[in-house]
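User: Predict the structure for this protein chain, please.
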Amino acid sequence: ICKFTINTVNGRNFYIKFFIWFELIISLLCFLMFFVVSHLGPSFQEMVATNTYYGKFPTASLFSNVNTAGIMAGVSIILSIAIYKKNILPGKFVIAFGLYNILALIFFGARSADIGIIVVLLFIGIKYISKSGNLKRVTIIALCLMVLTLIPIYGMIGYYESKATLSYEPAESKLNSLSSARYVIWKECFITQQDNLLFGKGNLNLEQEARKELMSHYRSGTVYYQYFSTTEVGPHNGYIGMISGTGWLGFLVFIAILVQRIRRSKSLEAVNWYLLLIFFFAVNCFESLFILNRFFICFYMFLILESDWEKGDETYLDNIKTDK
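Assistant: Here is the predicted structure, written as structure tokens:
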């Protein structure tokens, strides 16, 4: 992000207003299409099905994935809390926008976004119970806890893999069901990661090719069928996906840099921007947010970290003096 842009109030606010109006317009159109299209003629229905995702995602027909719609609604809810009384948009509009997106989140039905909201509410409760005023520390703790979710996942996968490759025991079946069929993807990622633990595959395309190569050695019926179908989708866990793409070295470097940026951020000193970061970290356990740009998560995450939302415009001369 251009430093000159984020150091102006209008520059910072533009990105927030753009997201709000874009999400509002697109989600309203999805509502409209869901309730109207079925009452129109066959030719119009065919045109909609051809040019949108209506046939696959009736509730989120203008999104390539229903999870994208849910995540944007979740971001909008928390964004409403963060910008309330910040003179970015009228207070009543911000309240209405937040309430509207609670309904949108329910309507879209994205479980990953639901869990993200629950985690945010949990940390709000922890903050008030502990009476902690150090929001940076709370944010770093949230990040570390989300990263630590890899321990039970990798532990379970490693345990069953030691018994049989691509096993599917009753306990694994339960976890696969709870994770909306993500467990089998994570298990494939775990297996292919063993070839290059330090540096990874290089990118997600190569990671996906490695999983396809793994499954090419098995015939249908010899292992659980979802191990074959899931090779067509991404890791659905940003932490696991980053390890697959960049290895443990790249993953740990990224987390270290992220922790450093959190510690230096001016936005996390006394306002609610930290809630957005916690939401991102939680949803990243179920979606590849940090390594796929379709959710704009990395952009807005670093926009929050690099901006001082409580500060006015900085002039060019102020920047020169600061740099010196």
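The CA atoms of residues 122 and 271 lie 17 Å apart.
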